[in-house]
Amino acid sequence: MGRVTQYSAINLISQTHVDPKKWSRMPSDDEVAKTIKAIEKRGVKVIQAESGQHALEILKTIIPLGATVMSGSSTTLIEIGYEDFIKKGQSKWNDLHDTILSENDDEKRYELRRKSVTADYFISGANAIAQSGEIIACDKSGSRVGAWPFAAGHLILVSGINKITSTLEDALQRVWQYAYPLEDARAKKVYGTPSQIGKCVILANEDIDGRVTLVLICESLGY
């Protein structure tokens, strides 16, 4: 897998009693191929990456210089090195995180966060992918999933193949039984407060050609 941090799944599993053998397994090549075919039928472009490092190089390639970029909180993005890349100021993109973090007024910062979902390019992880092609993400406030349905000009999703499940029902169960308990444990350590499934989006079809791209990584990443 990519870069392991203290908040990677492997370091939180013992605190949550989740079942990684059931919910974070590596699918077969046939299952991956079936999933990709189903996703692309739903109007989402899929780019396969051999590793987290490869996925980061893909992001650098498909996002143009000078683009306005925002990303949702994502363990996967941390593990592939995306956050380190952004913090070093190497992207040559207009990263909205810098603007938001530099604002000290709480109300103004909230407004900036709300508007950030309309970025030219919004980058996000995902919590589950069904072999039937639906892609799911949930979060507490909606700051990550708000860009998914329509707001972002381009939506780039980054996910390991360990998030592939057999059915949409299984994908939803994965969110509740695996992704949420791990995120809750992380939130308590980072913020001192529990997480919550407040907003949940199912990307079932995309009508705008070229708007949504899934970078699907042949590794176990995130949760």
Layout of strands and helices, then pairs:
Elements: H1 13-16, H2 20-23, H3 29-41, E1 45-49, H4 52-62, E2 68-71, H5 75-79, H6 82-87, E3 94-95, H7 96-101, H8 106-116, E4 121-125, E5 128-130, E6 135-139, E7 154-160, E8 164-165, H9 168-190, E9 199-203, E10 212-217
Parallel strand pairs: 1-10, 2-3, 2-4, 4-7, 5-8, 7-10
Antiparallel strand pairs: 5-6, 6-9
Q: What structural class do helix, strand and pairing data support?
A: alpha/beta
- Oligomeric state of shown chains: single chain
Judging from the principal axes of the Cα atoms, what is the shape? globular
Determine the CATH superfamily: NagB/RpiA/CoA transferase-like
Q: Which topology does CATH recognise?
A: Rossmann fold
State the domain count. Answer: 1
Instruction: Give the second-level CATH assignment, the architecture.
Output: 3-Layer(aba) Sandwich
Distance between the termini: 12 Å
Written description of the protein model:
It is a single chain. By secondary structure, this protein is α/β, with parallel strands linked by helices. The chain is built from nine helices and ten strands. The protein has one domain (9-217): Rossmann fold. The chain has a six-stranded parallel β-sheet with strand order 1-10-7-4-2-3. A four-stranded mixed β-sheet has the order 8-5-6-9, with helices on both faces.
Give a short summary of the structure.
This protein has one domain (9-217): Rossmann fold (3-Layer(aba) Sandwich), CATH 3.40.50.
